[in-house]
Amino acid sequence: MSRKYEDRIQELLNKMTLQEKVGQLRQCGPSLVGAFEVSFEELLDMMFDGRITQEEFARLMGTAKQDFREDDLRDGRIGSYNGIGDAATANRLQKIAVTETRLGIPLLFGYDVIHGFRTVTPIPLAESCAWEPELWERTGRMAAEEATAAGVHMTFAPMVDVSKDARWGRISEGAGEDTLLAGLYGAAKVRGFQGDDLSAADSMAACVKHFAAYGAAEAGRDYNRVDMSMQRLWEEYLPPYKACIEAGARAIMPAFNDINGVPCSVNEWLLKEVLREKWGFDGMTVSDANAIAECVNHGVARDRAEAAALALEAGMDMDMTSEVYIENLEKLVTEGQVKEESLDRAVADILRIKFELGLFDHPYRTDEERQSRAMLKPKYRSLAREAAVKSMVLLKNDAASGEMLLPLDKSKKIAVFGELASSKSEMTGAWAIGAEGNDCVSLTEALEAEGILFTYTEGICNGKVDRGAIEENAANADVLLIAMGEHKEESGEAASRADISIPEVQMKLLEALAAFSKPVVVLLFNGRPLTLSRVHEKATAVLEAWHPGVEAGNALVDILYGKENPSGKLTATFPFASGQCPMYYAHMNTGRPGGKSKFTSKYLDTPLEPVYPFGYGLSYTSYEYRDLKIEKKEKAFLVSVYVKNVGSRAGEEIVQCYVQDKAAKRVRPVKLLKAFDKVRLEAGEEKQVCFTVPFEELGYYDWNMKYVVEDGEFVFYVGKNSSDCLNASVILERSERR
Ligand code: NOJ
Q1: pTM of structure
Q2: How far is the centre of ligand 1, averaged over its atoms, from the C-alpha of 684 (Å)?
Q3: Who contacts 557 (Cβ-Cβ below 8 Å, separation ≥6)?
Q4: Catalytic site includes residue 7
């Protein structure tokens, strides 16, 4: 634990009144006042349940004013704000905190910078498909440079919730289904956000979320319970949060869900034993929005006061917007129902971060001038374009007239269909609150800028395929290009889907186009894996573009016309049917692995295999693997393989290394990702790719929760994706394990 600021923290604690202490624990969002008499939440509900129209909602919002509760701020009753993304407002409030409160303690401004602030990069699930920690760090740094210029001190990111269930809308916000990838992704983002020195004006503290296992919500329904074995929690879900803390993340957000019956917001085991005692975390915890109060709904607290007491005693430092701390803690401490020592510990955690951010010496880390110069710089746009290109995954590319359909030749006449092809705002994806849709380049704009002649038809009118409109354009084109998928509201928070197929009307449009017997390219914009068997069948080529961010159209044109060679690979399995969810590559075998005979583990009505497996992705060139070798070093296996680019153009191949513990005392996954590398190969070039896999990383938690590495046979799988690998087996002797 860093002791650097402890004396100053203690000095402040000695001076603080109870009210001031509780105030430090309060994070407010600006409330909206003025034009309506109901709360903002109620107003939102009114719009969603149809009592008012979207237009009425927008009109009311337009006349509303933000209330920052400045009187409370002056009284030392606010320690932090959430959701303020402009330097002028932040500095104005900071000035009140620093010059008008009794102790002059600066405010902390938190904001959701999930995939870029103004320069929006691909959604995290997409960016993870680049399998490139160095890229993740660079885009994190860019986000920090912009966000801090707008007054942000802390981002509620990275989200490292492993999710194996594509029904869960928030799978879009993380790195997919694999534990190793989620940890590497998260650690890289932490480094990018925080930089080398947290007190630098362009560094922001990372708040890792959502601790823990939020991505395992039962049935993929958001906020739902999580009930799992301790072994699974420790092996599959906890490591990414730990990786972020080891990378230096200074804050962590407990999740909305319960784990085995105890909501994370009041889960002392999680927040104290695991986080503080086992992992040595000395940063701050901040609740999810309203989550402490929601412990009453969970049914673990009788009322808001009890929820506040439980959360504080469990180790929750800051209350994000539920107001239960400010309403109750003073009284609870005075009456002896909550220990003042617990309150002091929470205040200390928050003050420590404020000191580390340098806020006591430089409370105003930015100004309007810096903000106006900081956004959407050309170098940021080019990084966003690089990230978008690297995130896209080529799922299918069949031959048309003798050669692969993609990349397209500029001489081909193309006809573009689908509203997503011309949409700018849809390109940002979920959770891009600092974004301006107009900043995005749509596909049709990018095609125009590239000087490509094309026709454009939305193709769907009033919920029906507009056959008249598609007829002429499709008939006159050489290649048909259709944009399909999900709108940005269809993934992200509170956007779970029980059916993850493409909407039927879009399928009808695709079928209508396929009937022209011309090559069809499907471009997919979506925030989660979808069931694509019908798309795969009808299309000649399929490119997964996700929600690619501000440079969407440019990145697409780069790939479609071959300026760039696609290299992304999926970090989440694309199931055949929604009913297979959760579906993931690292599954267990069962005693009756799925097969042809009746009494095996399978469904009667869907194939066993996914449409696209984890790790899958094509390129405009192709690669061959040979000579997989496993050697033993002192404490690790050295795995090597030769990879050759056997096509006619340069490319980057993501080489994946999985392992299976063949026979252990507990059931182990059929394959588990242990290492990967992205290698650039010129046409015809061959390279040897090597991985070191320490014996120590081959273990698991046994029945008694002891981490063990067993001797015996291990099978290594190295290849292009989780189901296309070479394999070789090796014996780890008992004497070699340690
Ligand atoms: C709720 C979300 O779960 C969380 O991810 C986000 O950071 C907070 N709201 C704050 O906006």
Answers
A1: 0.97
A2: 48
A3: 443, 446, 447, 450, 452, 563
A4: no
